[in-house]
Amino acid sequence: MRLPNLLFLLATSTTLVNTKNVSRRFYTQSTFHSTKRFRKQFNNSFNNYYFKRTFATNYNFQNVSSSFVFQPSQNKYNQTSEIFPAIPILDENNKNNINDNKPSLMILIGWWNCKPKNLSKYISLYTDKFHIDTLSHIPPFYHVFIPWKISNNINRLAKELIQIWIERGKPNNIGFHVFSDNGIYHYALLCEAIRQLSRGSHFMSSTPIISNSSSTSGNISEEAESFLNSIKSCVIDSAPSPISEKYIALGIAGGFMHKLDLLDSKITSNDPSSPSSSPSSSPLSSPSSSPLSSPSSSSPSLIDNEQQNTIVSSLPLSFLTHCLSLFFSLPIVKKYQNLVHKALDNIPGGTFDGRNIKFLFLYGPGDEIIPEDEVIKFMKKLKNRDKIYSNNNSNSEYSNNEFSNNNKKYIHKSGKGEKNEKNEEKNKVILKIMEKRFKIDSGHVQHFMKYPEEYINALELFYELK
């Protein structure tokens, strides 16, 4: 019983170390940054750098873990003989053809241990099908274990994101698509950092922004506020859940077991004697035909591997949870825990901050990492937050109805007390929450892979593209 625990702990430690190395592989630090003597001077110039640089389009993912990567939309027309204007002329005939609900820039934030090839499938969905420019970023998971690095990294990313937004022409309809807890919490932290920039200070610091001129500081604050006002939508895939030892242990164990499953599938597919490698085998075969489900037709090595995986998946989870509970009792980790939970509670949208932002939650009962109960609980918290801030508003309107199978939509309109009928609709703050519940055979961050048509249909309904 001790050997599986030790093997699991060793493999988990190796996975976390590799994750940190992969996340920082393409991130080069300056020599001055690591020297205490020049650290303050370097940080000041480093902060101003993102507001004086020229934006270069990146077509690869070499810096996706330390920066944002831009990918333009593949807006191709079927009739190439016609000449299309670069900027369409807005007249009465084609004004109605422009979809104001469609984002002009989509920002994707990946899950823990996400590979660029996995995230590229979602990027292609937006660039090729929806014809939307994208920015992508995969945040490092080691923030959980090294929380004192959060403030510097988040402040740097927030400034870079604002600068890219400026260089792309300040699009006024920004959408976010975030995955799992790693994505939603980094989205919340980014919004909190940008909110602090709009107030003239840095995230997790009361010190004002240091710049060469007061006008630069003012411009940063104004641009940060404009960026927040440009956020119109957020798609949340397989999230959120509280940052606790229980769910982090589930995430680590789930990622590790996923690697074991991939390893087993590769070994089985490369084994010419295995039934799955024969041409007659089908991935849609019944469980009874699986080589792991019938001892009489399986080799001893496959049975041993199955038994070992079962032991590894069941026993060390409580052991890992116990170790993480000791880690989460540290004061600095508690500080991080409270910080990210507060940032998530303060995500922009609705009467809380007066911004019209709509949400789409993608979840299902088959998610073993983040239970659907936690997602439903957070949606209720968002609705209650909106009702609390609009308690004294007589113009509030609520609707909660189903618009498709396993799809739900919640809308809350809150007026600002204006009596003018012309401006009544403009002055309403709208919180729209839509949800798509997938079937039980769709796992964590697997909804698009399992049900691509339903996934795309949910996005089209959300952006009102149909």
TrEMBL record:
Pfam families: DUF829. Residues 1-19 form the signal peptide. Keywords: Membrane, Nucleus, Signal, Transmembrane, Transmembrane helix. It comes from the Eukaryota. It is found in: Endomembrane system; Nucleus membrane. Transmembrane segments: none annotated. Residues 268-303 are annotated as: Disordered. Its main location: membrane. Residues 272-302 have a biased composition (Low complexity). It is a single-pass membrane protein. One of its GO terms (cellular component) is nuclear membrane. InterPro entries: DUF829_TMEM53 (IPR008547). The keyword Transmembrane applies. This is Transmembrane protein 53.
